[in-house]
Amino acid sequence: MARTVLCARLQQELPGLDFQLIPGELGKRVFDNISKQAWTEWQKKQTMLINEKKLNLMNADDRSLLEVEMVKYLFEGQDVDIEGYTPPSE
């Protein structure tokens, strides 16, 4: 049976991640509180952020920036502000 979590981002019981994707405390927090669906949404935002800001994941400052944005997005309900990106209108 798939494990479910009360997703901090989407505020509902949803299937959780299959395993901890990030090391350490933050990784445990994501694993325990974020659904697969919210994680997939974050990954799309993260890709746009990396491309927009030309982040280099070998660079510790760039990784820190991404981590801060991830926490804001997943746990604080904030959207990722990507300069020059306009969401497609519904």
Structure notes:
By secondary structure, this protein is mainly alpha-helical. It has a single domain (4-75), classed as YggX-like (Orthogonal Bundle), CATH 1.10.3880.10. The protein has three helices and two strands, in the order E-E-H-H-H. It has helices at 24-33, 36-53, 60-75; strands at 4-6, 13-15. A two-stranded antiparallel ribbon has the order 1-2. A hairpin with a 6-residue loop joins strand 1 (4-6) and strand 2. The protein starts with a strand and ends in a 15-residue tail after the last helix. The model has no long low-confidence stretch (mean pLDDT 92). Belongs to the Fe(2+)-trafficking protein family.
How many structural domains can be distinguished in the coordinates? 1
Q: Percent of residues in helical segments?
A: 40-55%
Order of helices and strands: EEHHH
Number of helices: 3
Proportion in β-strands: 5-15%
Please report the first level of CATH classification, the CATH class: Mainly Alpha
CATH topology: YggX-like
CATH homologous superfamily grouping: Fe(II) trafficking protein YggX
Mean pLDDT across all residues, rounded?
92
Across the major sheet, the strand order is: 1-2
* Rg of Cα set: 14 Å
Protein name: Probable Fe(2+)-trafficking protein
GO molecular function: iron ion binding
Family: Belongs to the Fe(2+)-trafficking protein family.
Function: Could be a mediator in iron transactions between iron acquisition and iron-requiring processes, such as synthesis and/or repair of Fe-S clusters in biosynthetic enzymes. Necessary to maintain high levels of aconitase under oxidative stress.
